[in-house]
Specification:
Blueprint: H1 11-27, H2 35-46, H3 57-64, E1 66-81, E2 87-101, H4 102-105, E3 111-122, H5 125-130, E4 146-157, E5 162-169, H6 171-174, H7 193-198, E6 208-216, E7 221-230, E8 250-259, E9 262-263, E10 268-284, E11 296-315, E12 324-335, E13 342-353, E14 363-373, H8 375-387, E15 397-410, E16 413-423, E17 434-444
Antiparallel strand pairs: 1-2, 1-17, 2-3, 3-4, 4-5, 5-6, 6-7, 7-8, 8-10, 9-10, 10-11, 11-12, 12-13, 13-14, 14-15, 15-16, 16-17
Length: 445
């Protein structure tokens, strides 16, 4: 076996650990320290942003309607056991942008403009060492370059009962979306990657032209529909600032019904989403004989159900979605097997917020997901083996399990070590199951 290569941290993350360790040491040191120094350090560690309030400039801008945002997210991973070979990989995302509240700026109530740029770089452990369909680093891919991620206008009407957004946006931000599912590093949990693989469902940071309308018909119910350009050329490295429609193959039209109840005497929050989509693009027919002339079909479609429900609350949070307690997560999805590589997908897991004494915002996550390959493709693989025995590895299903602990070190930083186990990488039995050790670092500048 090759010598196991240890996980790598970026220079920025390593520097942050040095700064934080020194800062905590100073904050906890004895009476010889200057009270002013300790107070300044404590304010920095307890602030909302790593770069602080810039002497009040940041707060002043927000009061006028200009909110600046930037962040860093890295994901390192290594597989000491299993996969195609042993290896390690690091990838990161840097983002910077701003939001304009037009109600404050020009008295246009409910109007907002969103602008965001990203830079992604690094390697995928799944691609280079494991051979799995689903990445073990959710921040990898969909635009490994510097790019314009979002340029959109949003308008709320009727007391925020009606909301519309249009511009350079992502279907994955608007449909089948919940921040709770991104408390995991494996891409099978964060983001509906099966929908993305099966269709032209755009996913951050690679946007496309689109629009979405959401109508809140009741405090607990909403309806949502959108339309987005499908353009496979947009994630390419050379197209980070491509805004033209050359290369477009059609549009994808998703729809979603949502129920957001608060159940029982404790008013425990839940979110339930039922949706579907239709992509008008031509797609390869997966039942075509392998090695023969390919054939295509018009249209790709699928359905999904997504839910999260708090089971019990140990303490209320200071902000919505920050309650301490146990939440159960679940997803089920199905797509047309004629054109969808992943015919079905399911996910089930738990997220506990609030772990030990004084760790109110730390979380423990445990989840399992499985993707099953198109029955049409499997039939074509079996047919190829009937003609030439052993010529093709027949695919079935790939399963991933993740256990993690996310530590909220400061309001603007988290560290999340995690353990993943990938069974039947690439949905075949010929690749050994892989044990993955991961580390996610997140900073809000």
């Amino acid at each position: 076996m090759k010598k196991f290569t240890s996980l790598r941290l970026s220079a920025a993350a390593a520097l942050w650990f040095v700064i934080l360790a020194g800062g905590v040491a100073q904050a906890q040191s004895g009476p010889t320290d200057s009270p002013a120094t300790v107070s300044t350090l404590s304010s920095w560690l307890q602030g909302q942003y790593m770069t602080g309030d810039w002497g009040g400039t940041r707060s002043a801008l927000e009061a006028k309607g200009v909110t600046l945002r930037a962040g860093y997210l890295s994901e390192s991973a290594a597989n000491p056991v299993g996969g195609l070979r042993q290896g390690s990989a690091y990838t990161h995302q840097l983002d910077a942008g701003f939001d304009l509240d037009l109600g404050k700026l020009i008295d246009l109530s409910g109007g907002k403009i969103h602008v965001l740029f990203t830079e992604r770089a690094g390697q995928s452990l799944a691609a280079q060492s494991i051979g799995s369909i689903i990445s073990v680093q959710e921040v990898f891919g969909s635009g490994q370059n510097v790019r314009l991620a979002e340029l959109s206008y949003e308008q709320s009407l009727l007391g925020e009962r009606l909301n519309a957004k249009l511009g350079w946006i992502h279907a994955s931000d608007d449909f089948a979306s919940s921040p709770l599912f991104c408390y995991f590093q494996n891409n099978g949990f964060c983001g509906q990657v099966a929908i993305v693989i099966n269709s032209g469902f755009t996913i951050f940071p690679s946007g496309s032209w689109g629009s979405v309308v959401k109508a809140s018909v009741h405090d607990e119910f909403y309806l949502k529909a959108g339309v987005y350009e499908v353009n496979p050329t947009l994630p390419l490295a050379a197209n980070g600032f491509k805004l033209g429609t050359s290369g477009a193959t059609g549009v994808i039209v998703p729809g979603e019904i949502g129920w957001q109840p608060r159940l029982g005497p404790a008013a425990l929050p839940g979110h339930y989403r039922l949706g579907g989509y239709y992509d008008t693009s031509d797609a390869s027919y997966l039942g075509s004989p392998l090695g023969g002339p390919p054939s295509t079909m018009r249209g790709r479609w699928g359905f999904y159900f997504q839910a999260d429900q708090m089971l019990y609350r140990t303490a209320p949070g200071s902000r919505p979605g920050q309650d301490q307690g146990l939440t159960v997560l679940g997803v089920a999805a199905y797509a047309g097997p004629d054109t969808a590589l992943l015919q079905s997908y399911w996910q089930f897991g738990f997220l506990q917020r609030g772990t030990f004494a004084g760790r109110d915002q730390d979380t423990i996550g445990l989840a399992v997901s499985q993707v099953r390959v198109s029955s049409q493709l499997v039939s074509a693989q079996n047919l190829a083996n009937a003609q030439i025995p052993g010529s093709v590895a027949v695919q079935s299903a790939e399963t991933a399990i993740e256990l993690n602990y996310r530590a909220q070190l400061t309001p603007w930083s988290t560290v999340m070590p995690n353990i993943q186990y990938v069974m039947q990488p690439n949905a075949v039995t010929t690749i050994p199951n892989a044990l993955v050790l991961g580390l996610q670092v997140k900073l809000t500048f």
